[in-house]
Amino acid sequence: MADPLKRVAEYGRALFGRLDEFFRRATGTSAEQFSSVESFGEVVRQRANELGPRGEAAFRWLDTEIRAFYAQRGVEAFGDATQLGGMKLVLGGSRFRQSQLASVSTSVLYSDTVLIPDPVMPWLERARTEEKFRHVLLLEAVHTLLQLKPLVDADLPYPPVVVFPSWEKLLEDHDAQTQAGISQLVIDTLCSSLGEELSSLDDVRDFVDRHADRFCEAVDQQHLFVAPGGSIDEPLTQALARYDAEMRTWRTPEWLEAYDRLPLHSRVLNGILERITPVYHLLENANEFASHPLMCLEQHAHYFRIVSHTSSTRLQRLGVLNPNTVAMVNALGSRRLRWLGSIPIDTLSRLRRDQENVTFRQRLAAAVGRLEEAALNSVDRVAAEVCHEISAAIGEHEKELRTIQAKYNRLHGQTAVLTTAAAGAALIPALAPLLGGAVPIALAAKYGHDKIAELAEKRRYTRSLIGVLAETKPKS
Fold first, then answer.
1. Is 271 among the domain residues?
2. CA distance 421 to 44
């Protein structure tokens, strides 16, 4: 029987190979050549007339090829991923954009494996007729995901990223257990927030209809409604206006027509349902893979904290509330450490080949472990400790480089003294025939040898993980 590790790696390469072919069919170029992640939308708008005719055939190919691939290998791939060991993180949400890519890149520095729910599959599981730009959003997901291809293709001891099929949309539409689980999570959250005993979603809707003002007041006070791109503490009226504007940009006229007929309190409830549903899938995936949740956006983390407060017993049973690990994951996702996500993927691949993530994780874990239990609940406090530890490691790195420089400065100085002495001796007529040309050549060779050794030793340190952090960290 084949090793699950090998099957996971082979599945990843096969999946990314197909996605790469689709992207080339759709655009005529590789994801790397097409655009940066930041400028994807701008390039799509500039090349819309060219991409339209190509895209139609490419999307037909993707629909046929990837569906068959998932059908043949999806179940086995999911099972193999559950057998991975080590320190694992599972990404929340079904979209994969710039924020998700940066979060994964950061996490690769210290975790063993980051598990990513396949962001392409949801676009094939159902028609998604409510999405106005579904083809562009699918292409964007593929483009962003392909940035990780060097990590997937690398022959590494352990897979740093694994993209797994999650079937979330199919489960939401057809699986009774999933539907019941999502409903219960929503009910538990709203019961806790409203101080009411509600036993079903019908009870929730009935209560919201009968007590609309009280419902909206509780939502506003406890920040249960956070709009895309909005702050957590944004007042409900502003958050709802932001949500409406976002929907009018991205949703179809048919969806908006139905949405506009809803009363305000029903729109608020709809937004909360949209936010809590991905948290359910995150919890289920964390359970299946025995992994810790990874949330790349502050809004996602906010809803996870709300659910954690109302379902702490369930979370402890799932084993996803290790305080130290959760604190470190949250801190590394903070704005203060956002620069960690800017390390090039090729560099990450090299660092993972040397398994430097293990040493880095141990060092950060020791730093976080020194904090009092109460401090673990403060992202800012943990982030400050992590920043201090990284700064200390960079300081040690720079001290070592200075030691190396001093050592070779001495060697170069000795060589210079010998060169000066040899040159002086050569000026003395009686000694000149004895020296000949051998001494200057030997001294020049020694200097060259020492210089090569110096550069090699420095290069070894600067290519280490801490060396990379020293070069990447903002100087201000």
1. no
2. 68
Domain count, the chain: 2
Is the CB of residue 40 less than 8 Å from the CB of residue 146?
A: no
Domain end position, chosen among 141, 173, 205: 173
Q: How many CB atoms lie within 10 A of CB 177?
A: 9
Q: 294 forms bridges with which residues in the sheet? A: 91
In this structure, are residues 92 and 294 in contact, taking their beta carbons and an 8 Å threshold? yes
Q: Does residue 252 belong to any structural domain of this protein? A: no
Is residue 276 a contact partner of residue 313, using CB atoms and an 8 Å limit?
Answer: no
Hey, what amino acid is at 400?
Answer: E
* φ, ψ dihedrals at 155, nearest 5°: -90, 85
Structural domain of residue 421, as residue ranges? 329-335+344-476
CA distances from 364 to 235, 341, 343, 378, 390 (A): 37, 17, 18, 16, 8
Are 345 and 152 in contact, with CB atoms under 8 Å apart?
no
Domain end position, chosen among 144, 173, 202: 173
CB-based contact 218:194 (threshold 8 Å) = yes
Q: What is the pLDDT of residues 146-157, one digit of tens each?
A: 999 999 999 888
Determine, yes or no, domain membership for 216. no
Give long-range contacts, CB 8 A cutoff, 24+ apart: 314-317: 314/283, 315/283
Structure confidence by residue, pLDDT tens digits, 32-90: 999 999 999 999 999 998 898 888 899 999 999 999 999 999 999 999 999 998 899 99
Please say whether the beta carbons of 89 and 293 come within 8 A: yes
DSSP state of 131: B
User: What is the enclosing helix (H) or strand (E) of 473?
Assistant: none
